């Protein structure tokens, strides 16, 4: 079966600040040889700490950024070969729900006008059809039709994020990329927003790529989880029955152990995650990207890059400890 979206050997680097100051040929690697696919109807979570390359991968998958190397395939065809008309269909089919709902809405436009602009790009509707579709979409995300006449600043954070979700779904996409959709919300309304998003995904038969830095959040939406570290996918696994998380990579387990536990009697001492992506020199070696912080490292980890190999059923791991 051909994946709806596939990234093949995708890498992305940006020119560093040094190259502008000293006129040297220097670059910053953000993604390194990413191989990733998502089939129609799947919900996959992509997790990792801030700065590891998650949002860059999302922009490349949506066609908003071009990879430095590799291919982005939509239904088996490289999107770089598409003409403008074909690419417009892809942009309709692949929508992003951004993290900051406050920054995506024009403060001088009402919510209804912002949703109208999204529709006008892809559909030819009459004024009556446009108004009915906007009202129906607002109601589906838990807002009544009167919110179409309100300005973004008059909405609470939760209401604005629901309008953000409506803006992405109103064009009836096939794939939605949720880039930290609940990170900016209060903890008390995160669960309600996730439940609403799950219901819409089921109703509209959507394919979902859910990006988060919180490994405990993605279990509410996704059946598969990909873990990214320094621009490399180090583990890909499916959730077991009961949505239990059973990661094997040292970094994945570190992420899981850092999640706060609400019940006071179940709390244990947590090991904080060292800041790997900021304040350090960029990783340039051929070894494992997690070598410096790993407690289980072996001599070959320093100079040999582990490949993402199958560990078990629907479980892939890039770690030399499990290599045959």
Q: Your description of this structure?
A:
The chain is built from nine helices and twelve strands. The chain is of the alpha/beta class. The chain has one domain: P-loop containing nucleotide triphosphate hydrolases (Rossmann fold, 3-Layer(aba) Sandwich). The strands form two sheets. The protein has an eight-stranded mixed beta sheet with strand order 6-7-8-3-9-10-12-11, with helices on both faces. Strand 7, helix 8 and strand 8 form a beta-alpha-beta unit. Helix 5 crosses helix 6 and helix 5 runs parallel beside helix 7. The two termini are 29 Å apart.
Short overview:
With 324 residues, this protein is an alpha/beta fold. It is 28% helix and 22% strand.
Q: What's the Cα radius of gyration? A: 21 Å
Number of domains: 1
Average pLDDT:
84
Tell me the name of the CATH homologous superfamily: P-loop containing nucleotide triphosphate hydrolases
Count every beta strand, where a strand is a DSSP E run of 2 or more residues. Answer: 12
Largest sheet: 8 strands, mixed
CATH fold descriptor: Rossmann fold
Overall outline: globular
The second-level CATH architecture is 3-Layer(aba) Sandwich
Q: Return residue spans where pLDDT drops below 50 for at least 5 consecutive residues.
A: 277-281
Which CATH class applies here? Alpha Beta
Distance between the termini: 29 Å
Strand content: 15-25%
Main sheet: strand order: 6-7-8-3-9-10-12-11
**Helix content bin:** 25-40%
N-to-C SSE string, H for helix and E for strand? EHEEHEEHEHHHHEHEEEHEE
Number of helices: 9
Structural class by secondary-structure content:
alpha/beta
């Amino acid at each position: 079966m051909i994946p709806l979206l596939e990234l093949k050997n995708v890498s992305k680097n940006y020119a560093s600040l040094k190259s502008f100051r000293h006129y040297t040929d220097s670059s910053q690697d953000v993604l390194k040889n990413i191989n990733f696919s998502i089939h129609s109807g799947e919900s996959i979570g992509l997790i990792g700490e801030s700065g590891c390359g998650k949002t860059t991968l999302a922009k490349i998958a949506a066609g908003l950024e071009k990879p430095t190397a590799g291919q982005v395939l939509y239904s088996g065809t490289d999107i770089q070969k598409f003409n403008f008309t074909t690419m417009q269909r892809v942009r309709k089919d692949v929508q992003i729900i951004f993290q900051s709902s406050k920054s995506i809405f024009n403060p001088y436009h009402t919510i209804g006008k912002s949703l109208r602009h999204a529709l006008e790009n892809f559909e030819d509707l009459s004024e009556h059809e446009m108004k009915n579709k906007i009202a129906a979409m607002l109601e589906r995300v838990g807002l009544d039709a009167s919110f179409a006449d309100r300005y973004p600043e008059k909405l609470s954070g939760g209401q604005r994020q629901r309008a953000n979700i409506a803006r992405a779904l109103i064009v009836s996409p096939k794939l939605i990329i949720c880039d930290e959709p609940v990170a900016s919300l209060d903890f008390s309304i995160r669960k309600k927003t996730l439940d609403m998003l799950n219901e819409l995904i089921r109703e509209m038969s959507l394919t979902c790529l859910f990006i988060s830095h919180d490994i405990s959040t993605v279990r509410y939406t996704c059946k598969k989880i990909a873990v990214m570290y320094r621009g490399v996918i180090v583990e890909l696994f499916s959730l077991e029955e009961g949505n239990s998380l059973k990661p094997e990579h040292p970094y994945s387990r570190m992420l899981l152990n850092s999640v706060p536990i609400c019940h006071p009697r179940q709390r244990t001492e947590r090991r904080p995650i060292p800041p790997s992506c900021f304040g350090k020199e960029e990783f340039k070696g051929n070894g494992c990207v997690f070598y410096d912080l790993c407690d289980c490292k072996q001599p070959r980890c320093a100079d040999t890059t582990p490949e993402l190999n199958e560990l078990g059923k629907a479980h892939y791991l890039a770690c030399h400890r499990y290599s045959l």
